[in-house]
Amino acid sequence: MSLRTQKRLAAEILNAGVSRVWIDPEYVERVEAAITREEVSRLIHEGVIKKRPERGVSKGRREKRARTPGRRKGSSIDEKRLWIGRVRKQRMRLKELKDGKKISRADYHKLYMMVKGGAFRSVAHLNEYLEAHKLVKRR
Fold first, then answer.
1. What's the domain range around 121?
2. What is the sign of the dihedral through the CA atoms of 48, 35, 9 and 39?
3. Which positions ≥6 away from 120 have C-beta within 8 Å?
């Protein structure tokens, strides 16, 4: 009861791989009797032999693959927004110090340009610098 030849012929006619050929189990004897391409073609027309659907990548598997680190482009965090937030806070701190007459205008300008140049990581870092260089006047 070998259907190898019939499956091969059906695969050629259906333009598919042998593994995609489905034979109705109720008509195995009829398929076994079919030895010519014409007979196999007739069985396909009758619906005894059919072509299985192609196996693809499932939607879930595809989406899982799309989320892996190797597929990501760019950063998930907007670096520019982080920079803007950091610089604004540092500038506000400098303005507080200048308005409160804790630093001179010259020092303010020098520190402002340093902030612009990215010299400080945070407001805390800016405060450390001010303490280390004794730029804050005590009242």
1. 79-132
2. negative
3. 90, 114, 126, 129
pLDDT in tens, 54-63: 989 999 999 9
Domain CATH number, residue 104: 1.10.1200.60
Does this model's pTM top 0.90? no
- DSSP state, 21? E
Domain count of the fold of the chain: 2
Assigned domain for 73 exists: no
Angle between helices 79-99 and 105-116 (to 10 degrees): 180
Which of these, 5, 55, 56, 54, lies nearest to 23 by C-alpha position?
5
User: What CATH number is given to the structural domain containing 10?
Assistant: 1.10.1650.10
Digit-coded pLDDT (tens) for 27-59: 999 999 999 999 999 999 999 999 999 989 999
Q: Is there a single domain that holds both residue 92 and residue 128?
A: yes
Please give the pLDDT value at position 1. Answer: 60
97 in a domain, yes or no?
yes
Give pLDDT tens digits for 69-101. Answer: 888 887 777 888 999 999 999 999 999 999 999
